[in-house]
Structures are given as C-alpha cells and as structure tokens.
Amino acid sequence: MSQAASSSSTSQSSSQAPEVYSGPRLEAVNLSKRYEDGALALDKVSFKVNPGEIYAMLGGNGAGKTTTINLFLNFIEPSEGEARIDGIVAHKDPLAAKQKLAYVSENVMLYPNFTAIQNLDFFAKLGGKTDYSKDDYRAVLLRVGLQEAAHNKRLKGFSKGMRQKCGIAIAILKDAPAILLDEPTSGLDPSAGREFIRLLTDLRSEGKAILMSTHDIFRAKEVADTIGIMNQGVLVMERAAADLKGENLEKLYVQYMAGHAGSEQNVETIN
C-alpha cells in the first residue's frame, strides 16, 4: 500500500464516529458485597434497566436495596460482579460512570441557606452544566411542581416534599440517561406522591432508565415496568408489572419475604 493510500485509510478510520452503546442503561451482573466482618449484604444479584423503563426494587430494611444503589454510585466496591452504567463498570471507571447517572436520595442533601434557584445553579455548574439561565431553573422547578413563590426562598424552610422536588430538578438538569432513586416517596403526602409519579412517567417517556428502591408497594405497582423483590441480599423475585395486574402484590410480597427466610430460593424471573 502506498503512503498516500495508507494516510487516506488512516484518515477515514479516525473520522468514523464512535460506536453508540445500545445496551441496558443500568445493569447488575452477579453483583455481590461481603463486608469485612463477614456479613453478606448482596449475593449474586443480576438485573437490567433499559431506556424508557422504571425498575422498582422492593424490600424491607437490610434487604440489600441501598447496598445495590451504593454499588452503582461506587460509594462501595463489589466483592464480586459488576454494576454497569451505560456499559461502563462503575468501580473501574467511576468518573465516566457518574457522568451517565443522576441520583436522588431519600433525604436530599442541599444547602439550607441557599434558595431553590441558587441550589440548582450551584449543582448544575458543579456537574459541568454552565449554560443554564435563571429562566431554565424556573422552568424545571415548575415542571417538578414547586410553586413559583418558593423559587427564591431558602431551603431551610422547605418541607421534605419540597426538598425532594429540588433534588429531582437537579437530576433533570444533569440530563443523564440513568436515574437512581433511593426511597423517593418516603414521607411524601398523597398529593406530593401523585405529582412524583407523574414526573417519573414523564421521564420514562423521555427514554430515561430509572431504578427506584422503595418500601412503597402501591406506588411501585402503579408506575413500574418491572418489579423486583429483595430479601437478605438476594433478588427473590423479578416480574413484569403487566404480569402482576391480576395479583395482590402486597400478599405476594409477604409470601416471598416469609418464604425466603431461613432457606434458599431461586429467583423467579421474567422472560
């Protein structure tokens, strides 16, 4: 091959667009976590959340839900397996993984002496988003249901539901393909809960992949595409929500929790 042909080939190769990832936005692959004291918090958990899907992970305290969330966030490293975000292994390339992920915790940690708009501006810029205007912040706060009169008030006077709305607004501004929610409806009144479910359905329609850990069986059944039940670090059930329409999810939940205690049980999975 001549030098010119070689140069042309190299130029064409370098100009090709990078391959676009088309797999699950969130994926746990044989994910396990054993702590130094020997406690097994998570035992070979596998699941995936595709674009435009909401996965609700149910379970009691100590079931492994928050451990799973923390592994995706790389707050802790797995003992075995991988937590993948947009195909990126969280503990191997945490900075790249976190760029693809937004997170809203049960108790949203924002600055109480900042106003709602100031909090949005601070966290947006912290995440590298420097082109938002105050009008953008107002628009997203209205979208999440925070009344305009509260936009320039300090957060120290906000209710839990109002702080939660600010947290969701920050997640929306990050515009990440995947969203993690840890007990998002805990402590919300019925009206705020309904607004939150409406917002989740909007985000799903935009193609976001959402993993929600929750105790709230009613809300999970209302909004999720897939429901998983965790107990003692094991994913004991995973079913499409459409397949559960004729079943009593509360009764099913109690049965799985009781049936797993003290015995091994294989996960029931969707096809």
Can you tell me about this structure?
There is one protein chain. With 271 residues, the chain is α/β, with parallel strands linked by helices. Helices cover 36% and strands 22% of the residues. The chain contains 9 helices and 10 strands. α7 links the parallel β7 and β8 (209-214).
Key terms:
single chain; 271 residues; alpha/beta; six-stranded mixed β-sheet; four-stranded antiparallel β-sheet; 9 helices; 10 strands; globular
Helices and strands in order:
Elements: H1 3-15, E1 26-34, E2 40-49, E3 54-58, H2 65-72, E4 80-85, E5 88-89, H3 94-99, E6 101-104, H4 116-126, H5 134-143, H6 160-174, E7 178-182, H7 190-205, E8 209-214, H8 217-223, E9 226-231, E10 234-240, H9 249-260
Parallel strand pairs: 3-8, 3-9, 6-7, 7-8
Antiparallel strand pairs: 1-2, 1-4, 4-5, 9-10
